[in-house]
Design a protein that fits this description.
Keywords: Cell membrane, Membrane, Transmembrane, Transmembrane helix, Transport. Belongs to the binding-protein-dependent transport system permease family. It comes from Arsenicicoccus piscis. There is one protein chain. The protein is about 80% helix and about 0% strand. It is mainly α and about 325 residues long. It has 2 domains: about 70 residues, no CATH class; about 180 residues, Orthogonal Bundle (MetI-like fold), CATH 1.10.3720.10. α1 runs antiparallel to α12, α8 crosses α10 and α10 packs parallel to α11. The radius of gyration is 24 Å and the shape is globular.
C-alpha cells in the first residue's frame, strides 16, 4: 500500500511540475503587454519600459519562471499589474470562499445521489425507478447557472425566503452566511447530484448481479443486508472516480455560479483579472486551480487503495 501511494505521489509531483511550465508558457504567449495595459495606450515608451522593469518583464524567461516558482513555493505570489496589491492574501481569501461553496455543493450532491441512486437501482424494474431515472437524466441536462437563476426566481424573488445574492463571512454573521450559501450550493449540488445519481445507480445495479451477492442472500441475508454488507463497498470504487472528477469540475465550474450569485470567490477574481488583462493574477489563479484538480486526483487514487484490497495485494 505504501509503495502504491508513493508512486501516486511521484506522479502528482511530476504532473504539477509540468503544469507550471505549461501555464507559464501560455501566459507568455498571450498577446499584449501588461505594462502598456496598466499605463494606457497614451503612455510613452519610456514609461512603459520603466514599468516593465519594475514588473520584471524585461528579464529572461527562465529567470521569470524561476522567480514565479519561488514565489509559489514561498507564498509570495507577487503584486497585481493593475492594482499593485499583493496577490497572495487576495487569492487566499477568494480561495476560501470558493472552497466553502464547492464543499457545500458536494455535500448536497452526495446526500441526494447516494440514497436516491441506491433506491433507483433496487427499484429499477418498477415505475418509481423509471420515473426517478428520467428525472435524474433531465437534471444532467440543466446547467448550473440556469439552475441558479431558477432558484433565485422561485425562492428569492417570488417567495422571498432567501437572499438572491451576496456573501457574508461566517465570522461576521453565521445566520446570513448560511442563508446566502443555500441557493448557490443547491444550484451546483443538485446538478452534480443528478450526474452522480446515474453513476450510483449503474454501480449498484452491477453489484446486484454479482454471484457473491446472490450467495450472501442464499445464506439467509435479506437483500438490504447483503447489499449493505457486501455490495456497497464494491459499488463505491467506480463512484469515487466520478466523485473526484465532479469535485474538480465543480471547483472550475463554480466560476459562472459565483457570477450569478455575486460571490467574491476565485472564479470572480479570475474573470476580473482576465477582463483587466492582469496576467500575473490570471497565471496564479489558473495554477491554483490546476494544483487543486491534481490534488483531487491524488486523493482519488489513494482512496482506490483504501477501498479495493486487490490493489494492496498487488502492491505486496
Amino acid at each position: 500500500m505504501v509503495g502504491t501511494v508513493l508512486r501516486r505521489l511521484a506522479v502528482f509531483v511530476a504532473s504539477l511540475a509540468v503544469s507550471t511550465v505549461v501555464v507559464f508558457a501560455f501566459m507568455v504567449l498571450l498577446p499584449g503587454d501588461p505594462a502598456r495595459v496598466a499605463l494606457g495606450t497614451d503612455a510613452s515608451d519610456a514609461a512603459v519600459d520603466q514599468l516593465r522593469h519594475e514588473f520584471g518583464l524585461d528579464r529572461p524567461l527562465p529567470v521569470q519562471y524561476a522567480s514565479w516558482i519561488g514565489g509559489l513555493l514561498t507564498g509570495r505570489l507577487g503584486t497585481s499589474y493593475v492594482s499593485g496589491a499583493q496577490i497572495g492574501p487576495q487569492l487566499a481569501d477568494r480561495l476560501q470562499v470558493s472552497l466553502i461553496l464547492v464543499l457545500a455543493s458536494m455535500v448536497v450532491a452526495v446526500v441526494v445521489a447516494v440514497p436516491l441512486g441506491v433506491w433507483m437501482a433496487v427499484r429499477h424494474r418498477r415505475p418509481i425507478g423509471v420515473v426517478l431515472s428520467a428525472l435524474a437524466q433531465l437534471g444532467v441536462a440543466v446547467p448550473a447557472f440556469l439552475a441558479g437563476i431558477l432558484l433565485i426566481t422561485i425562492f428569492a424573488v417570488r417567495l422571498g425566503w432567501l437572499p438572491a445574492n451576496g456573501w457574508t463571512p461566517p465570522a461576521v454573521d453565521p445566520v446570513m452566511f448560511v442563508r446566502q450559501l443555500v441557493l448557490p450550493a443547491l444550484a451546483l449540488g443538485l446538478v452534480q447530484g443528478a450526474v452522480l445519481t446515474r453513476y450510483v445507480r449503474s454501480a449498484v445495479l452491477d453489484v446486484l448481479r454479482e454471484d457473491y451477492l446472490r450467495t450472501a442472500r442464499a445464506k439467509g441475508l435479506r437483500p438490504a443486508q447483503a447489499l449493505w454488507r457486501h455490495g456497497l463497498r464494491n459499488a463505491a470504487v467506480p463512484v469515487v472516480t466520478v466523485l473526484g472528477l465532479q469535485l474538480a469540475t465543480t471547483l472550475v465550474g463554480a466560476v459562472v455560479v459565483e457570477r450569478v450569485f455575486v460571490i467574491p470567490g476565485l472564479g470572480s477574481l479570475l474573470l476580473d483579472a482576465v477582463g483587466n488583462r492582469d496576467l500575473l493574477v490570471v497565471q496564479d489563479v489558473v495554477m491554483v486551480l490546476v494544483a487543486a484538480v491534481l490534488l483531487v486526483n491524488l486523493l482519488v487514487d489513494v482512496l482506490y487503495v483504501v477501498l479495493d484490497p486487490r490493489l494492496r495485494l498487488g502492491d505486496a
